Amino acid sequence: MILLNQMSFAYRKQAPLFDQMDWEVQPGQVIGLLGKNGAGKSTLMGLLAGLLKPTSGDIQVNGYRPFGRSPLFLQELILLPEENFLPEKNTMQRYIGSLAAFYPRFDRAKMNQLQKDFDLPYDQKLGRMSFGQRKKFLIAFAIASDCKLLLLDEPTNGLDIPSKSLFRKIVTANIEDDQTVIISTHQVKDVENLIDRAVIVNHGKVIFDEEMLSLSDQWYFGFGSQADEHSVYVEKSMGGYHYIAPLKADQQPSQISLEILFNAVIINRLHTPKPVNA
Ligand SMILES: Nc1ncnc2c1ncn2[C@@H]1O[C@H](COP(=O)(O)OP(=O)(O)OP(=O)(O)O)[C@@H](O)[C@H]1O
Predict the structure, then answer these.
(1) Domain ABC transporter, which positions (predicted)?
(2) Rounded distance between C-alpha atoms, residue 264 and residue 161, angstroms
């Protein structure tokens, strides 16, 4: 479980990036963490991983204060950073051999299978692999670690089209009820059918936090030559209008467009039922 209580954070000599932020995450969810460039998504991941220390307030992850960097905390957490800096001379198997020991639940059979699924060779020097291949290797490693918290920063960046859809299938198939996955991304289409919950951060706060099921029970995401007259948000696009309107009693729930949702939230047209930090 993740608990942020009035958490503030500022980089040295800079204005606060997070300002008294409250947030709670129960285990068992795949969360899409969205926000504009510079909103603080990677910083939040750094705070959750204990790489950064809150300026004030509190963070607890699975009962630990991340910045304490307790070994018991670290063995249940894996962070896949946006840029991967890997030991170029190591082979994949040597990398696995040296790091898997840190993760008590690491599943080598699963790792082998995921390498096959991702079309990666069994062994190769990391320095001879492409950016996308290294990313797939690290995603496979993160999943095989079986950690309670997986922090994936832009995981689909650099993945080819088949690998993106494989990524969705692999996450869905391998995540258990005691695990939490937080995916920070701008590639919203890549996670639309994967996440259970959409969280949007802006100006140091969580401005939107809603489960996808609850969203599709409340709102209809439509596209047509005309927007619904009750729309709360309308966006002109090629050939028509994207809109968000209250779901009518006789309507089937629609597919949620995270891009339209994000645009609506950022200009303050859509809120969580109980606005967080309001
Ligand atoms: N090490 C650092 N020192 C000082 N400022 C930093 C540092 N890292 C990030 N920042 C600043 O903090 C803010 C948030 O950065 P962060 O990388 O967390 O945003 P982000 O939401 O992940 O952005 P993006 O979507 O562009 O990846 C930015 O204004 C950035 O310039």
Answers:
(1) 2-228
(2) 27
If you measure from the C-alpha of residue 61 to the centroid of ligand 1, how many angstroms do you get, rounded to a whole number?
A: 22
pLDDT tens profile 25-68? 999 999 999 999 999 999 999 999 999 999 999 999 999 999 99
Q: Which atom of ligand 1 is nearest to the CA of 43?
A: 18
Residue 153: both structure tokens together: 């920063």
Q: ipTM value, please give it.
A: 0.98
Do 188 and 222 lie in one domain? The reply is: no
pLDDT in tens, 152-197: 999 999 999 999 999 999 999 999 999 999 999 999 999 999 999 9
Considering the domain boundaries, does residue 110 fall inside one?
Answer: yes
CATH code for the domain in which residue 108 is found = 3.40.50.300
Q: What is the pLDDT of residues 59-74, one digit of tens each?
A: 999 999 999 999 999 9
Ligand 1 atom nearest 45 alpha carbon: 18
Distance between CA atoms of 3 and 21, rounded to whole angstroms?
A: 10
Which protein residues touch ligand 1 with a CB less than 6 Å away?
11, 14, 17, 35, 37-43
One domain, residues 120 and 91:
yes
- How far, in Å, is the centroid of ligand 1 from the Cα of 165? 28
Q: Which domain holds residue 180?
A: 2-203
183 shares its domain with 222: no
pLDDT at 155: 95
Residue 41 Cα, ligand 1 centroid: separation in angstroms? 8
